[in-house]
C-alpha cells in the first residue's frame, strides 16, 4: 500500500476487563492491530475467547476499559452457531452477508422495469439509475454471483441450493461452514 494504510492502527483495546456475575472472564486485555492484520484468538474452553471477540465486534458492551476503532472501519462478528431461517437456501443465507449489494441490484432491476411505465418520471428514474449504478460499480456488484460462488467453494459450504434446515441432520445452525465462514 502506497498511502500508508498498512502502518495505520485501525483497532485498539486498552485494559479491557469483563465480568459475568462475580466471575471475571477477561482481565486487563490490551491490543492493537494494523490495517490488513490477521489475528487469531487461542485459548482453552471457557477462557473468554468468545467474550473477547464479542467485545471487539461491539456485540458485548458490558465491559470496563477503552476501545477505539478508526473512522471508516467496522468490525463484524459471525456467531459460531448462527440462527438460520429455515427454508432458506445456503446461497440465500450467504447472500445476507452482502445484503446492501443484493438490495441495490434489486433496486437497479426495478428502476429498469419502471422505464416501461408510460407515466414514469423518466428524469427522476435516470438520475436514480445513475446513482445506483455508480454504487454498484464501487461494490463490484456485477460480479457478485461469481464472488459468492468462489467464497462458498473456499469455505466448503454445502450445495448452494440446499435448504439450511436439511443440513447437519436438520439442525439449521450446524452446517459445516457456520464456524469457519
TrEMBL record:
The keyword Nucleotide-binding applies. Signal peptide: none annotated. Keywords: ATP-binding, Nucleotide-binding. GO terms for biological process: negative regulation of translational elongation. InterPro entries: ABC_transporter-like_ATP-bd, EttA, P-loop_NTPase. Residues 27-171 form the ABC transporter domain. The keyword Ribosomal protein does not apply. GO terms for molecular function: ATP binding; ATP hydrolysis activity. PANTHER family: ABC TRANSPORTER-RELATED PROTEIN (PTHR43858:SF1), ENERGY-DEPENDENT TRANSLATIONAL THROTTLE PROTEIN ETTA (PTHR43858). This is ABC transporter, ATP-binding protein.
Amino acid at each position: 500500500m502506497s498511502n500508508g494504510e498498512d502502518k495505520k492502527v485501525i483497532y485498539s483495546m486498552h485494559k479491557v476487563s469483563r465480568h459475568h456475575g462475580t466471575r471475571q472472564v477477561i482481565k486487563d486485555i490490551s491490543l492493537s492491530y494494523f490495517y490488513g492484520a490477521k489475528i487469531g484468538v487461542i485459548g482453552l474452553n471457557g477462557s473468554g475467547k468468545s467474550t473477547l471477540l464479542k467485545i471487539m465486534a461491539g456485540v458485548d458492551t458490558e465491559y470496563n476499559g477503552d476501545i477505539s476503532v478508526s473512522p471508516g472501519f467496522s468490525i463484524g462478528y459471525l456467531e459460531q452457531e448462527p440462527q438460520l431461517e429455515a427454508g432458506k437456501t445456503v446461497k440465500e443465507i450467504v447472500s445476507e452477508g452482502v445484503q446492501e449489494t443484493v438490495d441495490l441490484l434489486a433496486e437497479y432491476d426495478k428502476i429498469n422495469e419502471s422505464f416501461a411505465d408510460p407515466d414514469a418520471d423518466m428524469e427522476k428514474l435516470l438520475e436514480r439509475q445513475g446513482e445506483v449504478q455508480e454504487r454498484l460499480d464501487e461494490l463490484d456488484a456485477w460480479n457478485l454471483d461469481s464472488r459468492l460462488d468462489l467464497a462458498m467453494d473456499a469455505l466448503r459450504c454445502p450445495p448452494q441450493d440446499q435448504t439450511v434446515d436439511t443440513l447437519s441432520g436438520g439442525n439449521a445452525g450446524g452446517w459445516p461452514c457456520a464456524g469457519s465462514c
